[in-house]
């Protein structure tokens, strides 16, 4: 009975690979735990701010937007992470900042994912001139310093959350396009693509049904690794004042304002910095594990 | 016999290697995989194509069903020229011609269940409606000897022999007239290979299929085929029925047959060991392309390339010894 | 009867994979006398290759040769040797020729460099002497113009030529035993015939013993005198090659022979029904019983004894 259940549970081959990898990889499990925590906190913030007008967090910790006379408090029983220059509770603000991090991280990586995969798949599948044109464009994008390019976009179109997402999305896109293209180059030589052609499928259909689903795992690995980078990029833009604007709470902004008081009250910068660091690290740990799980070289032939 | 299903005339398929260096020097190298091949395949027969690695047999099979663009020559299918048809008429032709590849695992999309794999051709060519889907797929599975439960599996969950049955079922789904079998059992174990060969024979009788059977294994070719063609370096050197095995005429066929190991002591003949290796198809020798390795070579062989000529009834040989 | 050159006793090699334990070789026994050639026949998953690798002790985690296995070679148990002593056995007293001549040579070194390195590892020769020896060896395996060819890289050789180089490497130290694992599977028939002739020739000349591993029944009959048939990590049958092939005892051997599309049979073949069992979850009792025509309840429960039927003829089946 139990054996039968596990068989149906693991029907999708990649689910089995991932579960086996995570069972033996403790750092990745730790990363996974932190990511869960981050998502949990982001969901909590969303519910709290839209339906309860910050009532829950105010009761539990403190209102992250409320200014109090207790400025520059070090960590204490009342304020675990201390307070900032306006007397706002840093713990509450770090928790609220998770929402921005998750939204910006996921949506900008989603942006790079969709466009990168499409461009890479088309370039790899058709080859020749199409490949040349698309990949040269991608390379131009690659050769521009990422942050400068993002600053340029935000400066022209205005500093708001959508533009930050798009800017960071564009600078991460070449990675996806390149990985998918090289994957597609080998997949299109496989016989099942030839067989699909022999059945009379149109190219667009072959790309969508046969090529992309088989190339996507490597893009998923890049995606998990990129979320960390994207969150860092957004933090960097915010730190420079070109990213998320107050009163939206973001870790980058908190870091930026903490910079001025770095020697008086290092906690102001320390906790948002720690949050950024832990988030980027967990996505990297998990990304590494996902890559190992999908690596055909590490797989044996026994699993038939 | 007699009705011609496929007629190939002087077919050529070259692969042009064009890299940066060759474009600079303006000298592009042509790999002449198939270099002027003509033959007929009759309806209902199994036509065997035998040859060693790199002789162009797979390329020829794929070019005939238009998976590769022919470089030159003509292909007729049911007396209609199909050499350069495109678009929807080519897609319609796909319904009549199918292919089964050597590697049963890599010819199936690893991300799809068997049911989805078999549904694809049915949906594409409007062979049956959504509510007939289950019944039709059961029918196909039963035809190739798979169980109904297998439809929910992914390719990696099946063994090589079962996968090859799925590949055959997918080819049969569109009810084709002609199937190219490109080394369909080379990746399988001996005990499984025999099952697949029997299945292919059964299906041929049931649906009056015509096969182009490509293999390097002379035992299989002899067992399966009505007529065979022996290929060497992009050309056919001999065509005939099973008598080719009894009395090979072209020196290459003679050498090839003599090298096949046999479990019977009495049929272990003296082997004809050819000197050297097969030349590269980029750099084909002048005259008869087999002459540098031939043990019956004459002066003329290095100068003039012999044509494939009928030397007796239904036996064609391309060799100066018989011209 | 003298002591055999090699005697494998109760060899068990298991692989501990995340998907379960694979008993690749599960209780294999055989001897090989000096100068003789033994064939190991089997389909995929039969454990024939792992048997060869176990003799060389080239088994790496997750694989493990279990305690209680013994590989006696020239009176010593190879499994008790420390790794550094084992290194002087490999390539020197036992050498191996692998299936794929394309990947068994290092593409960045010339043929000469690779050959002389092997020679100098096991023999105390100067660079010059080693090169001379390499040239002699290449001549011996039928490579023309060896003085020039040793300066070539592997990609400049054809498949058959590369396999010749690998054979030259294998015989360079006059080993007592050569293990050839499907050495001609990647080659064409005409090339295969030449390599087989070469191996037979060398074996006769140097007098080494040979273990020839293959899935090809017809091929094996041309090179070895004695044959063992493996299935799911166990030996099912053993005997003199022509006798075994003309008069198979085990239903599996019989089935294999009937499956063979020989040049003499036209029409339907009589294949073995069913599929090769999964290595993770092999059947109980006789490993062949789910596919066997003669299977009884007994076959499902007990592994039949490996019995001597007559001189040099052994079989593991309850029919006998």
Outline the structure in words.
The complex is a heterotrimer of chains A (304), B (323) and C (320). Chain A is mostly helical. Chain A has helices at 2-9, 13-24, 26-51, 55-60, 90-126, 128-143, 146-157, 161-187, 191-199, 203-239, 251-259, 267-294. The model of chain A is unreliable at 1-10 and 297-304 (pLDDT under 50). With 323 residues, chain B is of the alpha/beta class. Chain B has helices spanning 20-25, 57-64, 87-93, 114-124, 133-143, 160-173, 190-207, 218-224, 243-246, 251-258, and strands at residues 4-17, 29-42, 46-50, 72-77, 80-81, 97-100, 178-182, 210-215, 227-232, 235-241, 309-312, 315-317. In chain B, β11 and β12 (315-317) form a beta hairpin. In chain B, α4 (114-124) runs parallel beside α6 and α6 (160-173) packs parallel to α7. Chain B is globular, with a radius of gyration of 21 Å. Helix content of chain C is 31%, strand content 23%. Chain C is built from eleven helices and 13 strands. In chain C, strands 7-8-9-3-10-11-13-12 form an eight-stranded mixed sheet, sandwiched between helices. In chain C, α4 crosses α6. The model of chain C has no long low-confidence stretch (mean pLDDT 87). Classes of the chains: A mainly alpha (304), B alpha/beta (323), C alpha/beta (320). Chains in contact: A-B, A-C, B-C.
């Amino acid at each position: 009975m139990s054996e039968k259940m596990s068989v149906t549970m693991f029907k999708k081959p990649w689910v089995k690979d991932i579960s086996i990898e995570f069972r033996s990889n403790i750092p990745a499990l730790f990363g996974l735990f932190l990511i869960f925590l981050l998502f949990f906190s982001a969901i909590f913030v969303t519910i709290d701010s839209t339906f309860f007008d910050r009532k829950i967090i105010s009761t539990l910790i403190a209102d992250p937007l409320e200014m109090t006379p207790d400025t520059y408090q070090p960590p204490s029983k009342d304020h675990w992470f201390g307070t900032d220059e306006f007397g706002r509770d840093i713990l509450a603000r770090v928790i609220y900042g998770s929402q921005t991090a998750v939204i910006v991280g996921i949506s900008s990586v989603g942006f790079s994912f969709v466009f990168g995969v499409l461009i890479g798949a088309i370039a790899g599948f058709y080859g020749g001139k199409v490949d040349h044109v698309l990949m040269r464009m991608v390379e131009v994008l690659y050769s521009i310093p990422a942050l400068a390019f993002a600053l340029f976009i935000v400066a022209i179109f205005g500093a708001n959350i959508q533009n930050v997402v798009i800017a960071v999305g564009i600078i991460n896109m070449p990675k996806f396009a390149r990985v998918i293209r090289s994957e597609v180059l080998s997949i299109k030589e496989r016989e099942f693509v030839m067989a699909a052609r022999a059945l009379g499928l149109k190219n667009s259909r072959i790309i969508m049904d046969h090529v992309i689903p088989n190339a996507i795992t490597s893009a998923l690995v890049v995606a998990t690794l990129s979320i960390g980078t994207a969150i860092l990029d957004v933090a960097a833009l915010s730190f420079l004042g070109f990213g998320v604007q107050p009163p939206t709470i973001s870790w980058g902004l908190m870091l930026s304002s903490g910079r001025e008081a770095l020697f008086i009250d290092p906690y102001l910068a320390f906790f948002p910095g720690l949050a950024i660091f832990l988030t980027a690290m967990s996505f990297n740990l998990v990304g590494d594990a996902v890559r190992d799980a999908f690596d055909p070289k590490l797989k044996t032939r026994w699993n038939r | 016999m007699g009705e011609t299903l496929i007629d190939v005339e002087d077919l050529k398929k070259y692969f042009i290697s064009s890299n940066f260096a060759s474009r600079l020097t303006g000298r592009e190298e042509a790999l002449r995989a198939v270099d002027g091949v003509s033959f007929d395949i009759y309806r209902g027969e199994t036509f065997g194509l035998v040859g060693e690695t790199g002789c162009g047999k797979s390329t020829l099979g794929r070019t005939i069903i238009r998976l590769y663009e022919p470089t030159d020559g003509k292909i007729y299918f049911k007396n209609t020229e199909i050499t350069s048809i495109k678009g929807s008429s080519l897609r319609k032709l796909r319904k009549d011609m199918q292919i089964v590849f050597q590697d049963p695992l890599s010819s199936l999309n690893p991300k799809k269940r068997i049911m989805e794999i078999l549904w694809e051709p049915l949906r594409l060519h409007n062979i049956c409606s959504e509510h007939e889907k289950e019944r039709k797929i059961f029918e196909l599975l039963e035809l190739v000897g798979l169980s109904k439960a297998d439809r929910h599996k992914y390719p990696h969950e099946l063994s090589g022999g079962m996968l090859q049955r799925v590949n055959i079922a997918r080819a049969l789904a569109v009810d084709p007239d002609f199937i190219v079998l490109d080394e369909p059992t080379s990746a399988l174990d001996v005990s499984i290979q025999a099952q697949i060969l029997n299945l292919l024979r059964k299906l041929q009788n049931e649906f009056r299929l015509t096969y182009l059977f490509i293999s390097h294994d002379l035992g299989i070719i002899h067992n399966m085929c009505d007529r065979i063609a022996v290929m060497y370096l992009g050309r056919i050197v001999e065509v005939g029925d099973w008598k080719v095995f009894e009395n090979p005429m072209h020196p290459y066929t003679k050498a090839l047959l003599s090298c096949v190991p046999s479990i019977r002591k009495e049929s272990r003949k003296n082997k004809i060991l050819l000197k050297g290796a097969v030349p590269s198809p980029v750099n084909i020798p002048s005259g008869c392309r087999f002459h540098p390795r031939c043990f019956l070579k004459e002066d003329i062989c290095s100068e003039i390339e012999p044509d494939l000529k009928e030397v007796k009834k239904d036996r064609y040989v391309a060799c100066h010894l018989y011209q | 009867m003298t002591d055999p050159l090699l005697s494998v006793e109760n060899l068990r090699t298991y692989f501990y994979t995340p998907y379960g334990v694979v008993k690749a070789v599960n209780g294999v026994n055989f001897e090989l006398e000096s100068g003789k050639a033994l064939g190991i026949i089997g389909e995929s998953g039969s454990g024939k290759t792992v048997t060869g690798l176990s003799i060389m002790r080239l088994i790496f985690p997750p694989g493990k040769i279990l305690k209680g296995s013994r590989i006696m070679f020239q009176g010593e148990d190879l499994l008790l040797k420390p790794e550094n002593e084992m290194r002087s056995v490999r390539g020197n007293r036992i050498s191996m020729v692998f299936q794929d001549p394309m990947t068994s040579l290092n593409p960045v070194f010339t043929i000469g460099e690779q050959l002389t390195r092997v020679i100098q590892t096991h023999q105390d020769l100067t660079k010059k002497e080693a090169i001379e020896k390499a040239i002699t060896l290449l001549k011996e395996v039928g490579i023309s113009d060896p003085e020039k060819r040793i300066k070539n890289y592997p990609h400049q050789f054809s498949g058959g030529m590369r396999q010749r180089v690998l054979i030259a490497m294998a015989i360079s130290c006059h080993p007592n035993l050569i293990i050839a694992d499907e050495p001609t599977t990647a080659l064409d028939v005409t090339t295969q015939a030449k390599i087989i002739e070469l191996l037979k020739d060398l074996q006769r000349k140097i007098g080494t013993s040979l273990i020839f591993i293959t899935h090809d029944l017809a091929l094996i009959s041309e090179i070895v005198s004695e044959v063992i048939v493996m299935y799911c990590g166990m030996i099912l049958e053993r005997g003199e090659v022509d006798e075994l092939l003309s008069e198979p005892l085990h239903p599996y051997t019989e089935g294999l022979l009937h499956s063979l599309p020989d040049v003499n049979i036209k029409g339907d073949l009589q294949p073995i029904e069913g599929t090769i069992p999964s290595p993770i979850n092999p059947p109980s009792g006789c490993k062949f019983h789910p596919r066997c025509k003669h299977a009884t309840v007994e076959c499902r429960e007990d592994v039949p004894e490996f019995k001597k039927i007559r001189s040099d003829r052994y079989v593991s089946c309850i029919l006998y």
